[in-house]
Amino acid sequence: MNTLIIRGVRPYGEGDPVDVLVRDGVIAEIGSPESGDAEVIDGDGAVLLPGFVDLHTHLREPGREDTETIETGSRAAALGGYTAVFAMANTDPVADNAVVVEHVARRGREVGLVDVHPVGAVTVGLKGEKLAELGTMAKTGVRVFSDDGHCVHDPLIMRRALEYSKALDVVVAQHAEEPRLTVGAQAHEGEQASRLGLQGWPAAAEEAIVARDCLLAKQVDARLHVCHVSTAGTADVLKWAKARGTKVSAEVTPHHLLLTDERLETYDPVNKVNPPLRTSTDVEALRQALADGTIDCVATDHAPHAVQDKDCEWSAARPGMLGLQTALSIVVETMVETGLLDWRGVARVMSERPAAIAGLPDQGRPIEVGEPANLVLVDPGARWTVRGAELASIAANTPFEGMELPGRVVATLLRGRVTATGGRIPA
Ligand SMILES: NC(=O)N[C@@H](CC(=O)O)C(=O)O
Ligand SMILES: [Zn+2]
Ligand SMILES: [Zn+2]
């Protein structure tokens, strides 16, 4: 029998510190259990939360193992407090068939640091032309389908995908970007883009697709998930759609909760991302929408890129930024320290809601006796300085380089096994 005791932690940051006994991967006792010969983790008053679940991670394997592998991405995830991640399908080859998704799942299990759930592509080769074999992939256990990186822009194909997803009891996650409105787009369409001479990416290109997809999802009574919401207008559309009973959920990234297009001043492509960084009005609306549940959860859109794809002129650089190891701290900075969320709220947006959206039965569970010990310990008082080179990812493209951020992951447990502690992966 494998037992472990976490001493002096505060579940959801509430009440006096308690000890938590974990036996065989399950929470066995909460209070002041006998430790016996159990392995001890000193909680030191840390906040205890359910392990985080990321609905939107790019692990780059297969195809771009020079920037991230399932192993290095899993390490970053564990260090960031995650116990489950969804690996996006825009790999090379694309995860649009059972062979690729099964490879990703198997490799994730071999590494064993975080539950790696492959996302299946909606269309063959992410081309938006022909539906992929959703049923075959669903049979292997795929729960989420997405062409992320590309929008499923053809309304008929999107409608068919939603119909199939309903029959298969899976969810389609849409990268909402009307392609005709974003030809050559480089930055949020607005004053800053004009000043810098960058082609604009209008808010309406996102909002129009979200509105359309909400209408389609309502019509066919399917679930829809909206990736990386970036505008105040999208939050309005979601509020309207939810009020009329649409089964829609949505995520926001940490970077869209903190950064604005003012960062583009330097033309440093580390700030280039899709959808682009928007305005402070959008940032404020996204924070409010996350706090009031209009936006369900935080997802990282962790997007590693090689130096040569980032340290180049703006228009040639690839969009995307790292996120797994900084997500919690950005949420603490933007949502907890501003009083918009308490720790229960953090558990909701980083663990419970994403687990429910993806239909994971053993993640995002309450911290109670008999529940699986997928847990994260957070030191709310700690501050640390982000250094891309020190992150576990192979790539180092963090926009938070040099920033001092609040909140640190002290330890992560996956089914009672320590997958990260003190900023390290146990040997
Ligand atoms: N977010 C990004 O800017 N890039 C993502 C694709 C995506 O999420 O659309 C990537 O794969 O690099
Ligand atoms: Zn995307
Ligand atoms: Zn993405």
Automatic annotation (TrEMBL):
<feature type="binding site">
    <location>
        <begin position="58"/>
        <end position="60"/>
    </location>
    <ligand>
        <name>substrate</name>
    </ligand>
</feature>
<feature type="binding site">
    <location>
        <position position="148"/>
    </location>
    <ligand>
        <name>Zn(2+) 2</name>
    </ligand>
</feature>
<feature type="binding site">
    <location>
        <position position="56"/>
    </location>
    <ligand>
        <name>Zn(2+) 1</name>
    </ligand>
</feature>
<dbReference type="GO" id="GO:0006145">
    <property type="term" value="P:purine nucleobase catabolic process"/>
</dbReference>
<feature type="binding site">
    <location>
        <position position="90"/>
    </location>
    <ligand>
        <name>substrate</name>
    </ligand>
</feature>
<protein>
    <recommendedName>
        <fullName>Dihydroorotase</fullName>
        <ecNumber>3.5.2.3</ecNumber>
    </recommendedName>
</protein>
<feature type="binding site">
    <location>
        <begin position="319"/>
        <end position="320"/>
    </location>
    <ligand>
        <name>substrate</name>
    </ligand>
</feature>
<dbReference type="InterPro" id="IPR004722">
    <property type="entry name" value="DHOase"/>
</dbReference>
<dbReference type="InterPro" id="IPR024403">
    <property type="entry name" value="DHOase_cat"/>
</dbReference>
<dbReference type="GO" id="GO:0004038">
    <property type="term" value="F:allantoinase activity"/>
</dbReference>
<feature type="binding site">
    <location>
        <position position="148"/>
    </location>
    <ligand>
        <name>Zn(2+) 1</name>
    </ligand>
</feature>
<dbReference type="Pfam" id="PF12890">
    <property type="entry name" value="DHOase"/>
</dbReference>
<keyword id="KW-0479">Metal-binding</keyword>
<feature type="binding site">
    <location>
        <position position="301"/>
    </location>
    <ligand>
        <name>Zn(2+) 1</name>
    </ligand>
</feature>
<feature type="active site">
    <location>
        <position position="301"/>
    </location>
</feature>
<dbReference type="GO" id="GO:0004151">
    <property type="term" value="F:dihydroorotase activity"/>
</dbReference>
<dbReference type="GO" id="GO:0008270">
    <property type="term" value="F:zinc ion binding"/>
</dbReference>
<dbReference type="InterPro" id="IPR011059">
    <property type="entry name" value="Metal-dep_hydrolase_composite"/>
</dbReference>
<feature type="domain" description="Dihydroorotase catalytic">
    <location>
        <begin position="45"/>
        <end position="231"/>
    </location>
</feature>
<feature type="binding site">
    <location>
        <position position="175"/>
    </location>
    <ligand>
        <name>Zn(2+) 2</name>
    </ligand>
</feature>
<keyword id="KW-0665">Pyrimidine biosynthesis</keyword>
<dbReference type="GO" id="GO:0005737">
    <property type="term" value="C:cytoplasm"/>
</dbReference>
<comment type="pathway">
    <text>Pyrimidine metabolism; UMP biosynthesis via de novo pathway; (S)-dihydroorotate from bicarbonate: step 3/3.</text>
</comment>
<dbReference type="InterPro" id="IPR050138">
    <property type="entry name" value="DHOase/Allantoinase_Hydrolase"/>
</dbReference>
<feature type="binding site">
    <location>
        <position position="58"/>
    </location>
    <ligand>
        <name>Zn(2+) 1</name>
    </ligand>
</feature>
<feature type="binding site">
    <location>
        <position position="305"/>
    </location>
    <ligand>
        <name>substrate</name>
    </ligand>
</feature>
<keyword id="KW-0378">Hydrolase</keyword>
<comment type="function">
    <text>Catalyzes the reversible cyclization of carbamoyl aspartate to dihydroorotate.</text>
</comment>
<feature type="binding site">
    <location>
        <position position="274"/>
    </location>
    <ligand>
        <name>substrate</name>
    </ligand>
</feature>
<dbReference type="GO" id="GO:0044205">
    <property type="term" value="P:'de novo' UMP biosynthetic process"/>
</dbReference>
<dbReference type="InterPro" id="IPR002195">
    <property type="entry name" value="Dihydroorotase_CS"/>
</dbReference>
<comment type="similarity">
    <text>Belongs to the metallo-dependent hydrolases superfamily. DHOase family. Class I DHOase subfamily.</text>
</comment>
<keyword id="KW-0862">Zinc</keyword>
<dbReference type="InterPro" id="IPR032466">
    <property type="entry name" value="Metal_Hydrolase"/>
</dbReference>
<feature type="binding site">
    <location>
        <position position="228"/>
    </location>
    <ligand>
        <name>Zn(2+) 2</name>
    </ligand>
</feature>
